[in-house]
Write a structure and sequence with these properties.
homodimer; alpha+beta
């Protein structure tokens, strides 16, 4: 039964959990740098932001996967819950800032993260979950059960 | 100076303000029905959601334009502020649920709403503001200073 044991080990090794404050020292911000601009911040700034998000409870979840061997964060993504008036005062989940370490591709970690965030949105009663991505990533999200719906537009202030 | 007086009157007549709880009786939900599914909710449900959003302070603003003559809400849109770890613990504004009454098109009310929400996002320190829209609305948002950036994808639970 080697394959079963192996699979079980992999499952355990790459479980998604919620962000912990100690993850700053485990390369969480360095991982986000692989996604976009993410300058280092002081421990105090990190703690303040961490506590602001924690105060939102289930409305704001950051998921991470830690490599048990290296003790480094190798995948992350976040979801926030938007409370609306439409859809009978419904809620929508917004997935943001999904990234997998470039050395950990091919392990389906991105899919695990997206499923974790999607399951969270469903569990708190969202009627939908949305995200936006570049054209090269639409195939990945289609495999995760998402469909192309609209065009994302933005305005940068800085 | 007739034109100045007229312009000033129009400006005053169609000012954007924050949602008030009494707007439920001024057709706020009926206006949202022009956008998407928005079944009626009880006064208590509306009040609960209103107070949840109010508790978020500047992180959650719903703007409305009231027609001073009819006392009806004829345009609305919302913005929520997402606190992130990227961009030195930066903030992003998300514009949602923008709609103008079908009988009040051509008065630039949509532009006023989007500018109000964009200004709010800028004033609280966001590095960007984003939204998603159908292909037929990209021209409108380009006039508001937005650029196409990515593809919006979604998964509906209900």
């Amino acid at each position: 039964m080697h394959s079963t044991v192996s699979c079980s080990t992999v499952e355990k090794k790459y479980q998604v959990r919620k962000l912990e404050i100690s993850d700053k020292s485990k390369g969480f911000l360095e991982l986000l740098q692989q996604l976009t601009v993410c300058d280092s911040v002081s421990d105090q700034e990190f703690q303040n932001r961490f506590e602001e998000l924690k105060a939102c409870g289930d409305d704001r979840v950051v998921g991470v996967i830690e490599d048990e061997c290296s003790k480094k964060i190798i995948a992350t993504g976040s979801v926030f819950i938007e409370r609306k008036f439409i859809r009978s005062c419904g809620k929508a989940g917004h997935i943001e800032d999904v990234v997998v370490d470039s050395n950990a591709r091919g392990l389906q970690l991105g899919k695990k993260i997206v499923e974790f965030l999607t399951d969270h949105a469903r569990s708190v009663g969202c009627y939908k979950v949305v995200l936006y991505c570049g054209a090269r990533n639409t195939g990945f999200y289609e495999k995760c059960g998402f469909e192309q719906q609209a065009i994302n537009m933005g305005k940068y202030f800085v």
